[in-house]
Amino acid sequence: MIFVQLLVNSLIIGSIYALVASGFSLIYSTNKFMHFAHGVMVAVSAYLLFLTFDLLHISFWISCILTLIGAAILGLGTYRLLYLPLQNRKSSNVILLIASVGILILFENLLLLIFGADIKTIGFISVSKGMEFAGVIITPLQAIIILTSIIIFIALWLFMNYTKLGRNMRAVSDNKELANIIGINHRAVADLSFILGSVLAGIAGILIGLEQNLAPTMGMNLIIKGFTGAIIGGITSVPGSVIGSYILGIAENYGIWWLPSEYKDAIAFVLLFIFLLFKPNGLFGKKGGRT
Amino acid sequence: MIEAYFVHILILVCIYVILAVSLNIALGYTGLLNMGHIAFFGIGAYTSALLTKAGTPYIIALFAAGILASLMGCILVYATRKLKGDYLALATLGFSFVVYSLMLNWTSLTRGALGIPGISKPCFFGLCIANNNEFLVFALIITALTVFIIYRIANSNFGRLLQAARDDELGLRVLGKNTFKLKMKSMMISAFFAGIAGSLFAHYISYIDPGSFMMNEVILVFTIVIVGGLASIRGSIVATFIIIIIPELLRLVALPSSILGPARQIIYAVILIAILLLRPKGLFGRIDLE
């Protein structure tokens, strides 16, 4: 029974990681640099929901829409105002990575400054007792998180494979020069990837904000986990990143079966380090990571 | 009172000068994108604190801190030898996470989040440092020695080889040089001095916990090196003064400490982003960050 309960717990936490990883990996695959600040976009979204719903008392669904719009503007703004000028100057990926970490720290501390260090909760769904379902305990919200993320991943997969915009994105991610030659505007595709990736961050922020307490430092923790999931699955592949995130969830939950529970975070760090050293392209990624 | 405050700031400047100058050897001169520098700092701090707690003389603990950090640097370079660019940066960052979680979870050794309190002030052959003024003199001596040694290394034949490895690795290999060994030596020197800085930090603050060795601190040291300019030791020293002292000006307007902490981090982040956008070579840099 513990086995099944741990599997369900893995699915819950894996879904959260996968929501973070999918947007991160989507942005990486089209733009080929690491948008580490993606994690803080999730945190800012969770706080936006707290601001609109709990402080301004706007109705829940409108708050959600405002949050997603805010996330999209923030993501696009970061790209246009920071990454694009750097890219135009032919800065390397490492510069973009450092700039991105700078943004992460900037927003994390802005959240700390505006909302304070104390933990916030979003009171939309009152904490309910877990349902017992074939001996496994799961709260309705956790079930919603798993279902929503699976629906989103399927929709994302359909979008990437069966719409013109999605196919353009994959073309740019495959080969930017070739895509340019056949008339795909890679600038517009980059904009789109940041909007879409940040909306995914917004959805993650909403779901995580409902499930967990809000803390300004949550962005850093989330991007480390999401990033680890993406590296395990292959950062260039969005479906791979999603699967990698579930693998990370499973590894964490079954790992603490025989390790002390404080080691939960260490499991992710060690997996991240091992994959970066021995399999930097991940399980499903394309070759070319070790450039 | 104000004097004690200046002494405190100067000691911090000394510690960060050592950190920045040592990072510059790896990052600026050799082009090794090491985002895990703070891990060496932490390893040095813990090594030195634990050894002196166990009764080891300070002078031995100080060197042990440098040597253990240096050995970890050696292992890190060996482990990441096939990685380049942002993958190398992230693997070294991952290394610092692993070290951080060891500090946090290896409770039988490090006491975890409780940290190690009551670390003694340094003693040499029965002569102990009694107050911060004396500590400042000690820190200044160590800093001057470090800067002198690193300056000599950077301007030696070996230092020029390191720069050659950064600029044209393949070309240097064609000339029959083992660039991997060069990188390893560079990282070991860099890590050694970071460990020494860690020891100074631990024995000055007299209390360490894993929180002092997190990502924010990496970015602080990175910012110093980038603001000062890659491969410029003078730049790193000047930038340390600027970066450490600017946020201290906030104290003049008497902000509460709940605002002071985030405000300081925001200033660091804004300086970092601004310098990347406006002057990527830094104040005294001669080369672009690649």
- Measured as a percent range, the helix fraction of chain A is over 70%
What integer is the average pLDDT of chain A?
86
Poorly predicted ranges of chain A: none
- Broad structural category of chain A: mainly alpha
Strand order of the largest sheet of chain A: 1-2
Distance between the termini of chain A: 46 Å
Structure description:
The complex is a heterodimer of chains A (291) and B (290). Chain A is an all-alpha fold and 291 residues long. Chain A has a single domain (2-122, 134-278), classed as ABC transporter involved in vitamin B12 uptake, BtuC, CATH 1.10.3470. Chain A contains eleven helices and two strands, in the order ααααββααααααα. Chain A has a two-stranded antiparallel sheet with strand order 1-2. The model of chain A has no long low-confidence stretch (mean pLDDT 86). Chain B is mostly helical and 290 residues long. In chain B, β1 and β2 form a beta hairpin. In chain B, α1 (2-29) packs antiparallel against α9 (179-205) and α7 (157-167) packs across α9. Classes of the chains: A mainly alpha (291), B mainly alpha (290). At the A-B interface, α3, α4, α9 and α11 of A face α4, α10 and α12 of B.
Question: What's the quick description here?
Answer:
Chain A is mostly helical and 291 residues long. In chain A, 75% of the residues lie in helices and 2% in strands.
Write the layout of secondary structure elements.
The complex is a heterodimer of chains A (291) and B (290).
Chain A: H1 2-31, H2 38-55, H3 60-88, H4 93-115, E1 131-133, E2 136-138, H5 140-162, H6 164-174, H7 176-181, H8 186-211, H9 218-233, H10 238-258, H11 264-278
Antiparallel strand pairs in A: 1-2
Chain B: H1 2-29, H2 37-53, H3 58-79, H4 85-105, H5 107-110, E1 123-124, E2 127-128, H6 132-154, H7 157-167, H8 169-174, H9 179-205, H10 215-228, H11 233-248, H12 257-278
Antiparallel strand pairs in B: 1-2
Helix pairs in contact in B: 1-6, 1-9, 1-10, 1-11, 2-3, 2-4, 2-9, 3-9, 7-9, 10-11, 10-12, 11-12
